[in-house]
Each structure stands twice: as structure tokens, then as C-alpha cells.
Design a protein that fits this description.
mainly alpha; Recoverin, domain 1; two-stranded antiparallel sheet; 62% helix
């Protein structure tokens, strides 16, 4: 899967430097086909996005804002059964206004 292309599919004006930084950050997870995808129907997966990405990496402390951003991204990527972790994380950061923290 071309994760950079997946990001651009949902965020056509995505900052390439930020995409590259995100791909570097996720490089280990993206090597494994299973961990390279986000299972948005799995509550544990969304909890991981919430806690490990939005809170720890992005530094967001407002749980309601994080949940709203994740919900927005799930809706935006609805119909895609193979949600790229890179695209999902980029869109969550974008929705939270935290692309500079990527």
C-alpha cells in the first residue's frame, strides 16, 4: 500500500514534509500489513489512536475533542475497508489542528 498516496487521497493539499515525518514515525507499524491498517470498528484500536497518537504524540488533553476528531475521520474514510494508519493518523492530527506536532 502506498501510504503517502492514501494520505493525499483524503487530504489532497497535505504538507509533504508532514506526511514524510508521519511515515517515518510509523515506519515500524507500516511494515506489517495488519498494523499498517486501522480497524475503526474495533474499540480497542480507536482507544490506541486516542491514547497513543492524540494524547501522547500530539499532546491533546481534551478527550471530547479527540473523540470528535476520530469520529470525523471514521466518517470521512467510511467505505474504505483498508484504512491506512498513516492516512488515519494524518487526518486525526489535521482535525485537531496539531499537524505541527507530527
Amino acid at each position: 500500500m502506498d501510504h503517502a498516496a492514501e494520505v493525499k487521497k483524503y487530504a489532497p493539499d497535505a504538507d509533504q514534509a508532514k506526511v514524510d515525518a508521519l511515515l517515518k514515525y510509523l515506519s515500524i507499524a507500516l511494515r506489517n500489513p495488519d498494523s499498517a491498517l486501522v480497524a475503526s470498528s474495533d474499540p480497542d484500536e480507536l482507544k490506541t489512536v486516542h491514547n497513543n497518537w492524540a494524547k501522547k504524540k500530539l499532546g491533546v488533553t481534551d478527550d471530547a475533542a479527540i473523540d470528535a476528531a476520530i469520529k470525523t475521520v471514521v466518517e470521512k474514510m467510511k467505505g474504505n475497508n483498508h484504512k491506512s494508519r498513516a492516512a488515519f493518523y494524518y487526518l486525526v492530527a489535521e482535525a485537531l489542528g496539531k499537524l505541527d506536532a507530527v
